[in-house]
Structure formats: structure tokens, C-alpha cells
Amino acid sequence: MKINENYLKLEESYLFSTIAHKVAAYQKANPQKKIIRMGIGDVTLPLCPAVVTAMRDAAAEMGRKESFHGYGPEQGYPFLKEAVQHYYFSRNIKLDEHEIFISDGAKSDVGNILDILSADNTVLIPNPVYPVYVDTNLMAGRKIVYMDANRENGFLPLPDDRVEADIIYLCSPNNPTGAVYSKEQLQKWVDYALSRNALILFDAAYEAFVKDSALPRSIYEIDGAKRCAIEFCSLSKTAGFTGTRCGYTIVPEALEFDGVKLNKLWLRRQTTKFNGVPYVIQRAAAAAFSEVGQKQIRENLQYYADNARIMTGAMKETGLWFTGGENSPYIWMQCPNGMGSWEFFDLLLNELNVVGTPGEGFGENGKGYFRLTAFGDRQDTAEAMNRLTDYLK
Ligand code: MLT
């Protein structure tokens, strides 16, 4: 038996696990300290009432013989796919139901999709980036080419015609930087992909945080995207499903490489390796898309947006360069006084008892930067920002 040696190329532990261990060790040594957590992008508001009611009703259905559900369709129940279809249609994007695949979250599908793509492909990944894109490709032994996201390009790299790539990862609004591509910029990426017969893997997990109606929330708002892009989306951040787990992946019918439809391959993969998301959770997710669910969710999104406004206000007060926070729940800031990002992490944890994520954990270009999330409690967020601004005065 031989192990997959590609795993040995990975960092010793996943970024957010490393941080969790450091924070747990600090808390153990200092049990009296109140730590404010703005590290991992985990939501703090509870599920909205419409979702909870649907979940409870669905649980009751499961407890009665006449309405019990066993295995469901691997790609999701029609009632939820219709809800997703309608969600896109309300933004003028037409999808066929079979182009929608319900998943247990964007993270799983972003990794799993690689099953249907050859290990020979060259992958183009922005740096800094959500670590899952890099790790899953390292696990498969794929060649990775990085593109620089930096202060000069607003952390929104554009295609370089000299670079050859088969698979391109884009995330907008971006994790970790909070930067958002314009339609014109995304059109450049779609044109680049089409000109090379390349595939874009578009992570739209943060689309619901876009307030500016001129900015795209889906890659399918861009001409030609259905011929070159798969979109991953999630209810984690939008509807507080980080612990509930439900997302969806769009694989358009028009997506065809070497005469093979990716939709067909993905369906084949899912029917073999996945037994679908639990019925109760799919009912809960469908409720999140209902009129009342959407209204309740928007209130929660507004709460986080208000947190972000407090944070951008504090950033302006410190005079530190930052991006994000306007159409995104993440603030990406330059560390003060030329500090390294882990150095700043330690300082925040030890001196201010605030946890963030070191930019370096997202790649080389994150060195000297730091990510804070707006998913916290209002009072905690305000308190953390006060501690920060006071300290930096
Ligand atoms: C993050 O903090 O980057 C996210 O919570 C990670 C994730 O969504 O998996």
C-alpha cells in the first residue's frame, strides 16, 4: 500500500485549524480574558424563523410513516432546485433545473469538482486565496500557476495573455480580500477562458453581500460564461448555514470540452459518490429562498453590513490601508508599522484579545496583511475596533 504522497506537500495543518489551536492555547492559559473572534468567517446570528419552522416541520414529516423520506435524488429535491432556479431568475439568469446541483456547501463541491477534471490540467490561482483551491489541487498533484493579487491591482488580478491555464479559480466578492470584480473585469476573464478552452471555477459564496447593483453577483451575468464557467454558491454566509450545511453548484448544459458535457460527468460523479443533502436541511434551505425567508435573511445581512461599516470606519481612523467591507463581510488590512501578518496576529491575540486571520495564511502575497470578519456580534465588533484604534493611536 502506498499513500498519496501529494498530501505530504500540504502545510502541516489547515489554516483555520492552526488558528483555532493557537486561540485555544491562549484561552486555556488566560481563562479570565474575553477573546473577540474575528478570524474564521463563521456567522453568529441564528437561523431565521422561516428556516427553523421549515426544519421543524420537515423533522415531523420524517417521523411519520406516510411522509417519511429515505434516499433522495443525489442532485437535490426538485422543490429546492426550483427555489434556486427562481433565485437566479429574479436576477435575469435563466437556468434549467438539471443545471443545478444541491450540495452540502461550496467548500465540498469546490474540492470534489476536481474528480471530473484531468490531473494534467494547469491551474491558475490568485494569490492570496482561500486555501481550499490550492490544497485540493496539491492533493491531486496538479500543476499550479499563481497570479499576483496585490495592492497595485486592488487585489483583483486580470488575465495575462502570456499565461497558459486550463482551470482558473475566481472568487468575487473575494475571500480573503473582500475585493469585488466589475462586470467589465469578469468579461475579460470569460473572454480569456473562451479563447483558451479553459474552465473558470467561480466561487460566489459571498454574492449576497453585494449591495452595489452595478457589480455582478454571478458569473452568468457575463456574456459567454455559460460556455466556460461552473459556479459554486452556498447558504453558509447568506442564511447562517455554516453548521447546517447546504449549497448549490451550477454546471451549465453548454459547458462542453472535447465533445463531453461537464454536466453529465458531474451527475455521474455525484450519483456514485454522494447521496444528497438531508431532506430536513433541503426543506430548511428552500424556506431561506421563500419570500419571508429572504426578508428575514436580508435583516441578518444588514446586521453584518453594519458591522462592516463600523470596521471600515475604524480602519479609516487608524489610517491603515484596507480593502473590502463595502460589498463583502471581509476587511483586508495592511498590518501596522510594517509588521508581519503572524506577528500582528500574536499582538492582537496577546495584547488586545482579538482574533483575526493572518494574510500570509492565504499565500505569499498576503504577507503584511490581515483579514477581519464582520460576522461577529455587534457589541464585540465595536469593542474590538475600539481596542484596535486605541492601541494604534
Ligand atoms: C473563511 O473564514 O475563510 C471561511 O469561513 C472558510 C470557509 O468558508 O470554509
Automatic annotation (TrEMBL):
Domain Aminotransferase class I/classII large: 34-388
Chain positions recorded as pyridoxal 5'-phosphate binding sites: 71, 106-107, 130, 175, 206, 234-236, 245, 275
Modified residues (N6-(pyridoxal phosphate)lysine): 237
Broad enzyme group: transferase
Record field: catalytic activity: (2S,6S)-2,6-diaminopimelate + 2-oxoglutarate = (S)-2,3,4,5-tetrahydrodipicolinate + L-glutamate + H2O + H(+)
EC number: 2.6.1.83
Cofactor(s) named in the record: pyridoxal 5'-phosphate
Keywords, comma-separated and alphabetical: Aminotransferase, Pyridoxal phosphate, Transferase
Gene3D superfamilies in the record: Aspartate Aminotransferase, domain 1, Type I PLP-dependent aspartate aminotransferase-like (Major domain)
Biological or metabolic pathway of the protein: Amino-acid biosynthesis; L-lysine biosynthesis via DAP pathway; LL-2,6-diaminopimelate from (S)-tetrahydrodipicolinate (aminotransferase route): step 1/1
Quaternary structure, from the entry: Homodimer.
NCBIfam families: DAPAT_plant
Protein role: Involved in the synthesis of meso-diaminopimelate (m-DAP or DL-DAP), required for both lysine and peptidoglycan biosynthesis. Catalyzes the direct conversion of tetrahydrodipicolinate to LL-diaminopimelate.
Family: Belongs to the class-I pyridoxal-phosphate-dependent aminotransferase family. LL-diaminopimelate aminotransferase subfamily.
HAMAP family given in the database record: DapL_aminotrans_1 (MF_01642)
Stated name of the protein: LL-diaminopimelate aminotransferase
Protein's organism: Fumia xinanensis
Lineage: Bacteria, Bacillati, Bacillota, Clostridia, Eubacteriales
